[in-house]
Structures are given as C-alpha cells and as structure tokens.
Design brief:
Blueprint lengths: L3 E4 L9 H15 L8 H7 L5 H12 L5 H24 L9 H10 L3 E5 L4 H10 L9 E5 L12 H10 L6 E5 L2 H9 L4 E4 L14 E3 L11 E4 L9 H19 L1
Parallel strand pairs: 1-2, 1-4, 2-3, 4-5, 5-6
Antiparallel strand pairs: 6-7
Helix pairs in contact: 1-4, 3-4, 4-6
Bound molecules: xylulose-1,5-bisphosphate and magnesium ion (MG).
C-alpha cells in the first residue's frame, strides 16, 4: 500500500534556486566585498554540486585557487551563513512560490491519510521560511518527518537523507513515493529503493532521469495539465492521490513479476 509521500524542497516544492538561493549567494558575496557574481547560466552549472556550502567551496576551488584549504573552508562557512540570512529574508518577501499542483497534492494526500515527509539537502532555517511564507497555513503539521542538512550531512546524490526519513517514518521504501526535480535527487531516492516521480524545471529539464517511475513537467492543476516526458503516463494530466495509487499498484505488480 502507498502510505507516504516524501518531497524534496528546492526545485520540487518551489522554484527556489534562480530567484532565491542564487540571489542570496550573490548578496552574501557582495556583503563580503567580493566581486563574485553567479549569473543564471553559471548557477545552473554550479547546481551540479549539492549543498550551498559545498557549492561555494567548489567555486573557490575553481575561481579562487589562491586560498588554501583552511582559508577556503572558513570563508565558505561565513558566506554560507550570510547567504542563509539573505535567503530567509527573500522567502519572507515572497521571492519564491510553490510549483503548480504542490499545494493541491499536499492537501489531498493529507486528507487521504497519507504520511508526508521532507527529504532535502537544504538547512532547517530555509525549510521553515518556506513553510511559513509559501505553504498553506498549518501545512507544517501535516508532515510526519522533516529531514534536512542538519539531519543528513552527506548531500544528495548520497541517499543518507532518504534513509533518515524512512527510519523515522518506520516504513519500507516500497510503501513510499519520492518527488524530486533533479538527477542527483533521483539517485538519492532510488539508492534508497524509493520509487520516484520527477517534476523537471528549467535547470534540470535536460538531465538524465533513468529509473524514474514517471518524469513530468510539473504536478498539474485542473485545467492546466502536466506533460509526461518519460515513464508512466498520467490519466488526466494531473498528479493526484488517485493517480499515485494507480501508479503504485502498477509498480507493485511489476516488482512482483520481476521477483518471480
Ligand atoms: C538543493 C540544493 C541546495 C540549495 C542550497 O538540492 O542543492 O543546496 O541550492 O541550499 P536538493 P543550502 O533540492 O536536491 O535538496 O545553501 O541551504 O545548502
Ligand atoms: Mg531539488
């Protein structure tokens, strides 16, 4: 039976990267008197490195190699802390919005008695800001488990955060669906054995999503159907509880056939 839905945050619940995280990084660089600027395409390349502090460290390695490891690490930590402050402020100002279908699916799944969980590489402060300013009022209480950077320091594609969530939910991977937007996120969820639905965005559309149950443009809304880009089809252009249960039944049948 399908018992829980586990959601990634950045790029999945909301388009947080271009107008949220990226802008916050640039503001932190400016505050520190650095002339670094991550434009939209460069940020797309840097997104291959999961985790904000890790992303800054990677950038220092390529664009500021004169810093030694200790200096680079200390600078990355300082910049990342400042970046989090900027990000939280930006979210408070309404800079990021939920993606199509997200509020609808969360409310439906909660009403249907499914457990909800978060599995993200981002930090607790950022998750809380998004819940407070972008999710429907009271949505925080719908979530049985929220796991982020503080709970799982090994960032995706490492499966650690999904293992933490499965442990806390006390469910088998096959009783859950994961929702991701990126190849790294898909790998993390699949390495934990969780069937995964990918909803692509402008930064991830061209990535390789082998092993996803379905790859969709978004979760769809009534009158605004989502497109299926690969994998299992959508009956009505909408990812809703009925569709998820159908997909889960298909998935279970297929697993049984593979096992016999
Ligand atoms: C998202 C990320 C995050 C954010 C920055 O990955 O890579 O690192 O860009 O967040 P995912 P922090 O959606 O796969 O979880 O600065 O808080 O690390
Ligand atoms: Mg993501």
């Amino acid at each position: 039976m399908l018992r829980a839905l586990i959601f990634d945050v950045d790029g999945t619940l909301a388009d947080t990267e271009r107008d949220g995280h990226r802008v916050a990084f640039n503001r932190a660089f400016a505050d520190a008197g650095l002339d670094w600027h991550w434009d939209v395409p460069r940020y797309g390349e840097l997104l291959r490195v999961a985790g904000g502090r890790e992303r800054i460290l990677h950038f220092i390695g390529s664009d500021a190699p004169h810093l030694d490891a200790t200096e680079g690490d200390a600078l990355a930590r300082r910049l990342h802390a400042r970046k989090t402050e900027h990000y939280v402020r930006l979210v408070g100002e309404g800079a990021v919005r939920l993606r199509p279908g997200v509020a609808r699916l969360l409310a439906e799944a909660h009403a249907a008695g499914m457990k909800l969980a978060i599995a993200t590489t981002t930090s607790r402060a950022n998750i809380e800001a998004l819940f407070e300013h972008a999710l429907p009022a009271g949505a925080l209480d719908w979530f049985a488990v929220i796991a982020g950077a503080e709970d799982a320091p090994r960032k995706k594609p490492n499966p650690q955060v999904y293992r933490v969530v499965l442990d806390a939910l006390q469910l088998d991977a096959h009783e859950c669906f994961a929702f991701e937007d990126s190849a790294a996120g898909l790998r993390a969820a699949r390495s934990s054995g969780i069937p995964t639905i990918v909803a692509v965005n402008d930064y991830t559309r061209e990535q390789e999503f082998h092993g996803a149950l379905s790859v969709v443009s978004d979760l769809g809304e009534p009158g605004r159907p989502a497109a299926v880009l690969a994998g299992a089809r959508l009956a009505d252009g909408i990812v809703d509880v009925r569709q998820l249960r159908r997909w889960h039944a298909q998935y279970v049948r297929l697993e049984r056939r593979v096992a016999t």
